[in-house]
Design goal:
Elements (H helix, E strand, L loop, with lengths): L1 H13 L3 H16 L5 E9 L2 E8 L4 E8 L7 E6 L16 H8 L3 E4 L13 E3 L2 E4 L7 E4 L4 E4 L2 E8 L4 E4 L1 E2 L8 E5 L4 E2 L6 E7 L9 E12 L4 E2 L5 E6 L3 H5 L6 E9 L8 E4 L3 E4 L2 E2 L8 H5 L5 E7 L4 E6 L11 H10 L2 E7 L7 E3 L2 E2 L13 E6 L10 E4 L3 E3 L4 E2 L1 E4 L10 E7 L1 E3 L4 E4 L3 E9 L2 E10 L1
Parallel strand pairs: 12-13, 30-37
Antiparallel strand pairs: 1-2, 2-3, 3-24, 4-28, 5-26, 5-28, 6-7, 8-9, 8-20, 10-11, 10-19, 13-18, 14-17, 15-16, 15-18, 16-19, 21-22, 21-25, 23-24, 23-25, 26-27, 29-32, 31-35, 33-36, 34-35, 36-37
Helix pairs in contact: 1-2
Length: 474
C-alpha cells in the first residue's frame, strides 16, 4: 500500500512508534479519501508508563500535545503542585509560577497547568496533594481525583467548624486563603502567608501538636495569642491560624490564651481511603463516552462556545489518563470550543474528561522543554499544576550538539538534528523538541517559520537541554 510505504519512510526519519504509524495510516487513508491533508502524529516514551504525543492537523490548523499516563505504572507518579511550594509568597506574582518552574523545582519529568486562579497563588477549586487538603472545593465546579488504583470525576463539598472549649462553635468557610468579609478562614503553614483581611479582623494563633490536614479530619489545640487586625504574616512550619473578618470577628474576640479549640471538618464527594490527589477545573467534557459539556458557572458565549487555547484531563476505558493541551490565539491554531475539546478527548479514547484552566495558562512541559506554544508568547505564571515524578533520564557523558541553521526565510522548512561530536546522529525518538518565538517545531524536528524574528529552539536529549536561536527573515 503506497500510504504505508510513505509512512514507513516518515517513521524512520522522525521516530514514529509502531502504534502511531498504524494510527497515522488509518487516519491518513480516511483523509486521503477526502483529498485533505492528514493529521501528523508523533509519540515518544518518556518513562515506563508515560508517553508524550504531539498531533498536527494542518487543515484546521490544530496542534495538540499530550501525556498518556498509566495509573498503575510503578515508576511514574502524578501529584498536584503549588507554584513555589506554598499558596502565597512575596513578589509580584503573589505565589504563582510557571509550569516549567514547577517541573524544575520538583525535579519532575513533566508538568501541566491545572486549576483556575484569581491571579494569586490560590487555586479556585479543590486541591488535595498526597492526602493533604490544600484548598477547598468551589460550589458546583467539577474535580478530578486519583489514587494508586482509582480515579474519579465529580463534585465535592466542604463543611467545617471550630468548637471552643466552654464557648461557641464557629463555622469555618475558607482554607489557606484571604478572609473575605464576614468569613472565618483556617490557615496552616502551606499557605505561606496569612493575608490581612480588608475589614476589621481577629487572628487566633493556635498551638497544635503534629497537625494533619487530611481532606476530612479532627484536630485539637490551644489558643496562644489573639491579634486584632493582624497584618500580612509569613507562616512558618507548624503555624496554624484562625482568621475571622467583619461581623465574624466577634466570634474569636472572646477567646483567651490557653483555651482549647477543636477543629473538625469534612470534605465529601470522594472515597478518601482510595483517593490521594485532586485538582479542580471544570466543566465536565465527557461522561460515559458521550459529550456532556456543562456550564458550571462559566459563560457560554465567551468561554464554552468560543475558541481558546485549552487544557484537559481524560480517562480511557482501560484506565489510562490523558493530560492534553491544544494551542490557540496564534498562527498554529485559533484554539477550540469546549465541545470541540470534548471531541478531541473522545478521539484519544477517553470515556470521561474534564476541562482545566486554559487560555494563556495553557502549558505542557516535558523533560524541561515547553512543548506547546503559550498564547501570551511566554508562559503565564499559574497557581498550581500537576507534575509527573519518575526516574530522571540518564545523563549522557558524550558531548552533544544541536544542528540548526542560523538563518532561514519564511519559505524554508528545515529538519533539525542532534549529533554527537563524532558526527553520529541521535535518533529522533530520543529528542523532545520545543520552539518559541518566530517559528514552531514538530516532534519530527521540522522547523516551520511563522513570522520574521528569532525562533528559540530547545531539545531535551539524554538528560540535557540543548539550545539554539534561528533568525527568521522575511
Amino acid at each position: 500500500m503506497r500510504l504505508i510505504s510513505r509512512l514507513s519512510s516518515l517513521r524512520s526519519r522522525v521516530g514514529l512508534s509502531a502504534a502511531s504509524l498504524l494510527l497515522l495510516a488509518a487516519g491518513g487513508a480516511a483523509l486521503a479519501g477526502r483529498r485533505g491533508p492528514k493529521r501528523e502524529i508523533w509519540e515518544k516514551s518518556i518513562a515506563p508508563g508515560l508517553v508524550y504525543r504531539m498531533e498536527y492537523d494542518s487543515a484546521r490548523p490544530l496542534v495538540l500535545n499530550g501525556l498518556r499516563w498509566t495509573l498503575k505504572a510503578p515508576s511514574v507518579h502524578a501529584v498536584p503542585e503549588l507554584a513555589g511550594g506554598t499558596v502565597y509568597e512575596e513578589g509580584p506574582s503573589k505565589g504563582r509560577g510557571t509550569v516549567t518552574e514547577m517541573v524544575a523545582e520538583t525535579h519532575s519529568l513533566a508538568g501541566i497547568n491545572a486549576d483556575f486562579f484569581p491571579f494569586t497563588g490560590h487555586p479556585l477549586g479543590l486541591t488535595v496533594r498526597n492526602s493533604q487538603l490544600l484548598s477547598l472545593p468551589r460550589a458546583n465546579r467539577s474535580v478530578f481525583a486519583w489514587g494508586p488504583e482509582q480515579t474519579a470525576f465529580g463534585l465535592a463539598k466542604f463543611t467545617g467548624t471550630a468548637a471552643v472549649e466552654g464557648g461557641a462553635t464557629i463555622p469555618i468557610t475558607g482554607l489557606n486563603e484571604e478572609a473575605q468579609e464576614n468569613s472565618v478562614v483556617l490557615d496552616y503553614d502551606i499557605a505561606g502567608q496569612a493575608l490581612a483581611p480588608k475589614s476589621p479582623s481577629i487572628t487566633a494563633v493556635l498551638r497544635i501538636d503534629n497537625p494533619t490536614f487530611a481532606p476530612s479530619t479532627a484536630i485539637s489545640g490551644v489558643v496562644e495569642l489573639l491579634i486584632p487586625d493582624a497584618p500580612k504574616t509569613p507562616m512558618k512550619k507548624g503555624d496554624v491560624y484562625l482568621v475571622a473578618a467583619g461581623e465574624k470577628a466577634s466570634l474569636l474576640a472572646t477567646l483567651r490564651p490557653g483555651q482549647r479549640v477543636t477543629i473538625q471538618y469534612q470534605t465529601s464527594g470522594f472515597d478518601w481511603e482510595h483517593i490521594e490527589n485532586c485538582v479542580g477545573g471544570g466543566p465536565i467534557l465527557l461522561r460515559d463516552g458521550k459529550v456532556a459539556v456543562g456550564e458550571e458557572g462559566f459563560d457560554r458565549k465567551s468561554f464554552i462556545d468560543a475558541k481558546h487555547p485549552r487544557s484537559a484531563v481524560g480517562r480511557t476505558a482501560d484506565g489510562d489518563l490523558w493530560w492534553v493541551t491544544i494551542d490557540g490565539r496564534q498562527e498554529t491554531g485559533s484554539g477550540v470550543s469546549l465541545t470541540e475539546l470534548a471531541e478531541e478527548m473522545r478521539r484519544l479514547g477517553c470515556t470521561d474528561a474534564m476541562n482545566l484552566d486554559g487560555g494563556g495558562s495553557t502549558a505542557l512541559n516535558v523533560l524541561g522543554v515547553t512543548v506547546n506554544r503559550p498564547s501570551d508568547g511566554v508562559e503565564r505564571a499559574v497557581a498550581d499544576g500537576v507534575v509527573f515524578e519518575g526516574p530522571a533520564p540518564k545523563l549522557s557523558d558524550i558531548q552533544l550538539k544541536l544542528v540548526a541553521p542560523t538563518t532561514v526565510d519564511m519559505s524554508t522548512e528545515s529538519f533539525l538534528e542532534v549529533r554527537e561530536v563524532s558526527g553520529a546522529r541521535i535518533p529522533n525518538r530520543e529528542i523532545v523538541w520545543g520552539a518559541q518565538g518566530a517559528a514552531w517545531i514538530d516532534q519530527g524536528g521540522l522547523l516551520r517559520p511563522l513570522k520574521a524574528g528569532v525562533a528559540h529552539i530547545q531539545a531535551a536529549v539524554r538528560g540535557r537541554i540543548l539550545l539554539a536561536d534561528v533568525k527568521v527573515g522575511s
